[in-house]
Design a protein that fits this description.
Two copies of one chain form a homodimer.
Chain A lengths: L3 H8 L3 H8 L7 H13 L6 H8 L4 E6 L6 H15 L3 E6 L4 H12 L5 E5 L5 H10 L2 E4 L9 E5 L1 H14 L5 E6 L4 H16 L9 E4 L3 H12 L7 E4 L2 H13 L7 E3 L16 E3 L2 H17 L7 E4 L2 E3 L11
Parallel strand pairs in A: 1-2, 1-3, 3-4, 4-5, 5-11, 6-7, 6-8, 8-9
Antiparallel strand pairs in A: 10-12
The first copy, chain A, binds a DNA duplex (30 and 30 nucleotides) through helix 2 and helix 4.
Chain lengths: 332, 332
DNA sequence: AGCAAGGATGTAAACGTTTACAATTTAGGA
DNA sequence: TCCTAAATTGTAAACGTTTACATCCTTGCT
């Protein structure tokens, strides 16, 4: 492995001068620059970032922690994050936790051990105490799923309003029995969406029945079995609001398999790419994924520059996307 | 930022002894270990990996380069890779290139600059010359998409045989006009699948017509517009073999939109999670995604241990998965 | 000629670790 | 009592950079 010392030896200059050439310092003569650069090209020398980082104590890297790649939601988020990072000279590295605590912990150690300059968390399993401890010492920002009581910058949408609008859309189609498929865990994201769902029902004078809420995994299977559970009740709904498109797709799948898709409407949430292509399209709530990613990095950069920068909470706009999976209530 | 020196000062021991405690060296007394560990706990000291890496010149990190996260194909791959890495004490960091050369280059620099110990490439845009240069100096392995003439370890499936079997399945259903939707780029993956497609046709005595092959992006839109192109010919096919499930889904979507889905069969490739849920299910070829990920890391680890370890090429078993999108030819 | 200023380069310390080697202490055996 | 070996700890170099500071050499001015 050829190091800056080798280049120094080969050129006859000192390592300091070589370093200056590498870093485009103005205080080096044209002649010298030319000769050093030539030697660098002829060997295949690449500055060792470990050495550089150690000296400058900056890695120019941002860690983005994702729960899983099952969901294409994060594809756009990551594009936004990548663009924002690149514009600031940073690089995004992704860690996929598969929701395992020990894996998440091992990635977080990258932050503690100075291998990355900051971290964007999405759907973390950390609680507010962990988060406060972490965010007190290191740059951290939170994306999409807020943790109430955690003192850090975050970017999300108004989940209450969005869920309310989604439910209202179903109500406007004449539906009166509307169920909800929500996540298992008590994240603010689930709570907010559930609250929005309830507010819509109550404002429309419909009875809010907690037994109409089924908890499931945020994936196809979860939606499928949740729909099964709902539709085999003695009082099945005519519409189902799912907390994620993946669940909505599973739900529609169940309905189609049982010839119920014409009678029962489904709304999803997120507007992932495939929602447009599934069945006749999944009606859903669009999240500005690219912008969420972008802003999460932007907020993080503020913290990287100054760990004491004030925390900010960004609420980005959402929007209803109506497609084929929601239709007027037949029995209505 | 508290360093090992601070711990040394606080305990009264030397940094060497503290280091030994951290690294669980046996040559340290119980008494000392206890006292040092106590102080470490009371401060929130975390060893700086940059310092450690610099000294030991090993980062215990593996970079996995992915083209995009649009495709859930890589979700399972990454799970396999993560498990294999973890078992060996390594950590996976993911880089998403979005198929941009400068982004890919910026991640590859992590390898050159010793920030990761090795790299798994998937669908790289590097050619065999780039790859040979890289793999000559650094541990690199290739996943899924082989580059002919590149001298490195790789793991894949038998794409020729798999595509042949997929096509044969359509033939066995009575189809005679079978089109193919394939990727744009001349990757071995596309070539192999195209060859398998042709072999199946020729062995069945059907004429191989290159104009029946349409090139498209590996995503929904690509499949959609490819299907449109094919179905608006004067001699539309009764079956379409797509080189990826994402394209197959787009193709089926087009067919449904035009009431053609009962007449025209579609086969995909990959067996991504959502293929089971789309429409009546996408018939496809299963790739052992988890194992591909696992083995790609395994092969890489061999190279990390010894850069001169012999190159290996692993071919993992595939399997046909028949679902609702392929059915007997109506006109037959 | 003498001097100051500025440009180019070198010297060496520093970043946070690990580890070979040296030094010290302790115990046991003759 | 003295010597050896083992156990424990310390010293200092090394990993590859960057950079403050020092040094040297021009150049131009008086």
């Amino acid at each position: 492995m050829v190091s800056i010392k080798d280049i120094a030896a080969l050129t006859g200059y000192s390592v300091a001068t070589v370093s200056r050439v590498i870093n485009q310092s103005p205080k080096v003569s044209e002649e010298t620059r030319r000769r050093v650069e030539e030697v660098i090209r002829s060997t295949d020398y690449h500055p060792n970032f470990i050495g550089r980082n150690l000296r400058s104590s900056a890695s120019m890297k941002i860690l983005m922690l994702l729960p899983t790649l099952d969901n294409t939601f994060f594809s756009d988020v990551l594009r936004g994050a990548g663009d924002a990072a690149m514009a600031a000279g940073y690089q995004i590295v992704v860690g996929v936790t598969n929701k395992k605590a020990e894996v998440e912990e091992s990635y977080i150690s990258m932050l503690r051990s100075c291998q990355v300059d900051g971290m964007v968390l999405t759907n973390t399993i950390l609680d507010k105490f962990d988060l406060n401890r972490l965010a007190g010492s290191y740059p951290v920002s939170l994306l999409s799923d807020i943790v109430e009581g955690a003192d850090l910058s975050c970017v999300t949408i108004d989940n209450v309003a969005a869920a309310k609008e989604a439910t209202e859309h179903l109500i406007s189609l004449g539906h009166r029995r509307i169920s909800m498929v929500n996540g298992y865990y008590y994240r603010s994201l689930s709570i907010d969406r559930e609250n929005g769902y309830r507010m819509a029902l109550e404002q429309a004078g419909l009875t809010y029945d907690p037994t109409q809420i089924v908890r499931a995994d945020y994936n196809f299977k979860g939606g499928y079995s949740a729909a099964k559970k709902l539709m085999t009740r003695k009082d099945p709904p005519s519409a189902i609001f799912c907390s994620a498109d993946s669940m909505a797709i599973g739900a529609v799948r169940y309905l189609m398999d049982h010839g119920l898709d014409k009678q029962v409407s489904v709304m999803g949430f997120d507007n992932v790419q495939e929602s447009e292509y599934f069945f006749n399209g999944i009606s859903t709530v669009n999240q500005p994924k690219y912008e969420l990613g972008q802003q999460s990095v932007q907020l993080l950069l503020e913290k990287i520059q100054d760990i004491h920068a004030p925390n900010r909470r960004l609420i980005l706009p959402h929007e209803l996307v109506i497609r084929g999976s929601s239709h007027p209530c037949l029995g209505g």
